[in-house]
Structures are given as structure tokens and as C-alpha cells.
Specification:
The chain is 56% helix and 0% strand. The protein contains 2 helices and no strands. It has helices spanning 2-18, 29-39. It is mainly α. It is elongated, with a radius of gyration of 17 Å.
Length: 50
């Protein structure tokens, strides 16, 4: 049973984070998310003066 759970977890990780996805340019979803956040700088909190 432990082998099945491990295999399922590994497949889920591959499917959700590592597989090339055609809808986002044949790159892995994790890479797409990293690129997205690299382009959007965080905004300062409202009311905070620096």
C-alpha cells in the first residue's frame, strides 16, 4: 500500500508541477508561475510610507 501511495504522490507532483503544458507554451506549470510572479513586483501595503 505504501508503494501505491508514493507512486500516486509522485505522479501528482509531475502532473501538477513538472509536465509540459500546451496551453501555456509547452512549459511546466511551475515555471509558468515563476515567470508570472517575476514580472509582477509586489505592491507596498496601503498606508505604509517608506
Amino acid at each position: 500500500m505504501a508503494d501505491v501511495e508514493l507512486s500516486t504522490t509522485e505522479w501528482g507532483d509531475w502532473f501538477n508541477d513538472q509536465r509540459p503544458h500546451t496551453a501555456i507554451g509547452d512549459i511546466p506549470p511551475h515555471e509558468h508561475e515563476t515567470n508570472h510572479y517575476a514580472q509582477h513586483q509586489p505592491q507596498p501595503a496601503a498606508g505604509v510610507n517608506t
